[in-house]
């Protein structure tokens, strides 16, 4: 059976299909539990949550499913030196973005208070709550944290955008490695080289990693139906992680307009940009995303740029100026068909099984 893999065994799940966790408040308990209850692995992106919020979410997930699930954090969650930027750099950003704030008729934001990393406090909660699976991006947790996860039987999953990163994750002893391809929606989780020079596609990255690394690999990026699951498995993937197709389902915590955009013609074009958070992420190309290409000098480091842009985003949503927003999504969006997570799971499983049965016939 195609679904009996090393990854499904380690994760204790029936089907090696992971629902990609979504940070930035786009995950939902309903989506996680729907996917886990259907035999896959639901994932909750918790990097913006306070420790208490993570406890609450974990308890809600535990109440909604008795199957394995995953909670996800960002190991490195700031690029700002001392959590801040100089007044001069902040003025430069204000100047670059002023026309957009003017267009929306809102004031430019003040310089945000220094940002302090939240990872250490968040991970304490993970160790306390003991979700069956802990996945992370933007780096490798310390040896001590990984050792505690092992002792507590929490399965760990790290994300790689290059072969070097996969080797680093394997050396650290993580249980499973995600090969995160360039096609994927959301942020590129690069942590050794800049994201701009870590742009290998899923199926090349998967093969490079399979050549050199023994840890089971999960393919992520551009997978949304059974044929692409079968293709990933044929190339040696032990599991797949699907983001954009689940983000477009009613159960995710996206807005109705975001889901509409993912099913619209606009989704044919996507852009990788640092303009919206300070880190490189993929979303549906919009007027503002196009305008801001090659203007990186005026962007603040992550997450100060996210805070700065949150004002613009809020006003753009209120005024329905959709061309001033980057709606997160991957290159595969134009083939999406399903709006219910259980139907998406069912269709992926049927298609993958039919594909492998056809090979045997
Ligand atoms: C809106 C959005 C937010 C995401 N946030 C996270 C995150 O916080 N942590 C993470 O590990 N992956 C995150 N991802 C990546 C997904 O979990 C998944 O690996 C990726 O979407 C797979 O590629 P696909 O979009 O082509 O299916 C995010 C993806 C999207 C689209």
Fold and architecture overview:
With about 350 residues, the chain is of the alpha/beta class. It has a domain at about 5-80 and about 115-255 and about 345-360: Aldolase class I (TIM Barrel). It is about 40% helix and about 15% strand. The protein is built from 14 helices and 12 strands. The strands form 2 sheets. An 8-stranded parallel sheet has the order 1-9-8-6-5-4-3-2. Strands 7, 10, 11 and 12 form a 4-stranded antiparallel sheet that branches. Helix 2 (about 30-35) runs parallel beside helix 3, helix 3 packs parallel to helix 5 (about 120-130) and helix 9 crosses helix 14 (about 340-360). The protein is globular. It starts with 5 loop residues before the first helix and ends with a helix. The model has no long low-confidence stretch (mean pLDDT about 95). Flavin mononucleotide binds near residues 23, 220 and 221. Flavin mononucleotide (FMN) binds next to strand 4, strand 9 and helix 10.
Quick structural overview:
With 361 residues, this protein is α/β, with parallel strands linked by helices. The chain has 14 helices and 12 strands.
């Amino acid at each position: 059976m195609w679904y009996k893999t090393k990854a499904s065994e380690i994760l204790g799940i029936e089907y090696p299909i992971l629902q990609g966790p979504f940070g930035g408040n786009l995950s939902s308990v309903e989506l996680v539990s729907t996917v886990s209850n259907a035999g896959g692995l639901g994932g909750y992106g918790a990097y913006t949550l306070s420790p208490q919020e993570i406890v609450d979410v974990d308890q809600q997930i535990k109440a909604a499913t008795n199957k394995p699930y995953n909670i996800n954090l960002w190991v490195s969650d700031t690029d700002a030196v001392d959590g801040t930027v100089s007044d001069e750099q902040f003025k430069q950003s204000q100047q670059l973005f002023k026309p957009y704030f003017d267009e929306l008729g809102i004031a430019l934001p003040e310089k945000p208070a220094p940002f302090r990393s939240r990872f250490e406090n968040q991970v304490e909660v993970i160790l306390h709550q003991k979700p069956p699976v802990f996945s992370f991006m933007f780096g490798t947790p310390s040896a001590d944290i990984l050792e505690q996860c092992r002792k507590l039987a929490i399965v760990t999953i790290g994300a790689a955008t290059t072969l070097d990163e996969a080797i680093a994750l394997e050396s650290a002893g993580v249980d499973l490695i995600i090969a995160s391809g360039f096609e994927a929606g959301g942020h590129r989780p690069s942590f050794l080289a800049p994201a701009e020079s870590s742009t290998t596609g899923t199926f090349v990255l998967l093969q490079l990693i399979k050549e050199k690394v023994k840890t089971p690999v999960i393919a992520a990026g551009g997978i949304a139906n059974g044929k692409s699951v079968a293709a990933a498995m044929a190339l040696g993937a032990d599991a797949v992680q699907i983001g954009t197709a689940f983000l477009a389902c009613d159960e995710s915590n996206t807005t109705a307009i975001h889901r509409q955009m993912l099913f619209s013609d606009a989704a044919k074009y996507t852009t990788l940009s640092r303009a919206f958070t300070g880190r490189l992420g993929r979303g549906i190309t919009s007027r503002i995303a196009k305008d801001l290409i090659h203007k990186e000098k005026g962007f603040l480091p992550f997450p100060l740029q996210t805070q700065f842009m949150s004002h613009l985003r809020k006003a753009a949503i209120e005024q329905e100026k959709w061309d001033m927003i980057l709606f997160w999504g991957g290159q595969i969006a134009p083939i999406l068909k399903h709006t219910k997570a259980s139907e998406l799971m069912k269709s992926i499983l049927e298609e993958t099984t039919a594909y492998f049965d056809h090979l045997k016939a």
